[in-house]
Write a structure and sequence with these properties.
12 helices; binds ligand FNR; Alpha-hydroxy-acid oxidizing protein; single chain; FMN_HAD; FMN; Alpha-hydoxy_acid_DH_FMN; two-stranded antiparallel ribbon; oxidoreductase activity; 347 residues
């Protein structure tokens, strides 16, 4: 089994910067405040070390898994990210096609530039989650949740780490503003009254599950006690995330928060994680720590920006090939059963 082709995410980001306006590239790349969380995220995964098992003889590990009952060919999925037509003309459609070609799950953002039902129609057999923000009136948010259920999404992802918008200094300095012609497909129709949006509470987890008819995933959890309350309130899965360093800063790295959340709820529900995952060994580390799946944000941004839907496939397939290679090197044969002692803290 040959080593996988080189997936050079740094070179992809550099190339994307050549193609995008500087303020747009900074909007995608940037984090909040001092960007400490953003900077530390990849390094935190690398604070773990692999402990390869030898003489196991399994050169072709099994990569398929299921996420809330939906089959996928890889545990690497696409995190929700906003305004994809700003990165490439293929937009969210390109990401949906690219993820489907890699056998990966895509999470579609509320802030998509493509309407939510159009995206379940792209590669309809490829499972997708829909991510919900409460950015407009409660009535509009509830309507979007119902439509996500009707459109065939497999889960509703409530992003709870944005009670207020993070202070993204790059955007403040550049004066970044969304292009006037950018479609915001899931916004209320013109004339819809702007209403204040009360923060979500634990009760909303069950309420949105009922409204949408979908299992609810709570995204943006960094603490075991919060994860336990989410599960008590009816969450079907918990997604450990600090929003890619774009909200609270300096927030704990997800590579360090994940074990606490897995200890609290890992026996009851699926646990996902994102933030700074940039290689197959990062993925294997997350799986060993108890994550069922990982999601990538910026690698998908740079893939779409540089190569449209094929660029997304290359990134997801590249990370998956690296994962398979690292598993073979470590004597691990199944992504659904990665022993915790496959890794140890670096000393
Ligand atoms: C995001 N993220 C995000 N999350 C969410 O729930 N809804 C959204 O609309 C967005 N939008 C968004 C835009 C951009 C440009 C980025 C970079 C991120 C957060 C995203 O889902 C995820 O948590 C992080 O991107 C994961 O970190 P990495 O992989 O980018 O390091």
């Amino acid at each position: 089994r040959p080593a996988p082709d080189l997936l050079d995410l740094t070179a992809l980001e550099t190339r994307a910067r050549e193609l995008l306006a500087p303020d747009v590239a900074d909007f995608f790349a940037g984090g909040a405040e001092s960007e400490t969380t953003l900077r530390e995220a990849p390094a935190a995964w690398r604070s773990w070390r692999l402990r390869p098992r030898v003489l196991r003889g399994e050169p072709a590990p099994s990569l398929g898994t299921s996420l809330l009952g939906s089959e996928v060919a890889t545990p690497v999925g696409v995190a929700p990210w906003a305004y994809q037509t700003m990165a490439h003309a293929d937009g969210e459609r390109g990401t949906a096609e690219g993820a489907a070609a890699a056998g990966a799950l895509m999470t579609v953002s509320t802030s998509a530039s493509t309407e939510l039902a159009e995206l379940t129609a792209v590669a309809p057999d490829a499972p997708k989650f829909f991510q919900l923000y409460r950015v407009h009136s409660p009535a509009h948010t509830e309507d979007v949740a119902r439509r996500a259920g009707a459109a065939g999404y497999r889960a509703l992802v409530l992003t709870v780490d944005m009670p207020v918008f993070g202070r993204r200094l790059r955007d403040l300095v550049s004066g970044f503003a969304l292009p006037a012609d950018l479609p915001l497909a899931n916004r209320p129709a013109a004339g819809h009254p702007a209403a204040p949006t009360p923060a979500w509470a634990f009760d909303d987890i069950g309420r949105f599950a009922d409204l949408s008819g979908l299992p609810v995933v709570v995204k943006g959890v960094l603490r075991g006690d919060d994860a336990a309350r989410c599960v008590q309130a009816g969450a079907a899965a918990v997604w450990v995330s600090n929003h890619g360093g774009r909200q609270a800063d300096p927030a704990v790295a997800t590579a360090h928060a994940l074990p606490e959340v897995v200890d609290a709820v890992g026996d009851e529900v699926e646990v996902y994680v994102d933030g700074g995952i940039r290689s197959g060994s990062d993925v294997l580390t997350a799986l060993a720590l108890g994550a069922r799946a990982v999601f990538v944000g910026r690698p998908a941004v740079w893939g779409l920006a540089t190569g449209g839907r094929q660029g997304v496939t290359r990134v997801l397939s590249g990370l998956t090939a690296e994962l398979a290679h690292t598993m073979a090197l470590c004597g691990v044969d199944d992504v659904t059963a990665v022993p915790r002692d496959t890794i140890a803290a670096a000393r």
